[in-house]
Input
Amino acid sequence: MEPNATRQPPLVKRRYDGQGRREEARARHRRVIEEARRLFLEEGYSATSMEAIAGAAGVSVQTVYAVFVSKAGVLARVIDVAIGGDDQDLMVRDRPEFRALLESPSPEVLVRSAVRHGRAIHQRSGRVLHLLDSVAGTDAALAELAAELRRQIRDESGYLVDHIPQSWFRPGLSRDERIAITLLLGYHQTWWTLTQEQGWSGRRYEAFLVKVLLRELFEISD
Output
């Protein structure tokens, strides 16, 4: 009997089983993230235990610890997914919608597209980021997470500023000033203050940011 005739089916089955297990594990991880987000926002971070997250997701608490290490680790992953919009391990700057911003033909198109993109991110992530702000002072791991997110936002703003045609910018603006102005778009606190505390509509929020960014970065009146 030919060796391949006996070996091929088990190899195919092992590949199929391995893929199935990976898909099941990914589905479990998604459930943990979804249920953790819900519990954090409904019950509060401090009141939500790892056992409660595991029970809501239908997995063992050991599984949650094995994947996320700690409750702060769960929150970090909840935030990653909220910002990215999915569970892919991609930085914001590497996502297609961000890359498209860099192809904008004019400052007006760039700013309007960037504000719309930023608003979508804030709508997904603003509540969990505000939650992190409220508890960051209670735990060293949370404080470190909040500081790392601020660093990442500043880095993304710097990356965007460095990849915009330099001739577009208002004369006399330093790189640091360009980044500082761009952070109005990147920081969720701007979105939270205007939409959640001031009660502005999403449309008003977008129009305001477009006006400010065009004027301050490019000396263009909206």
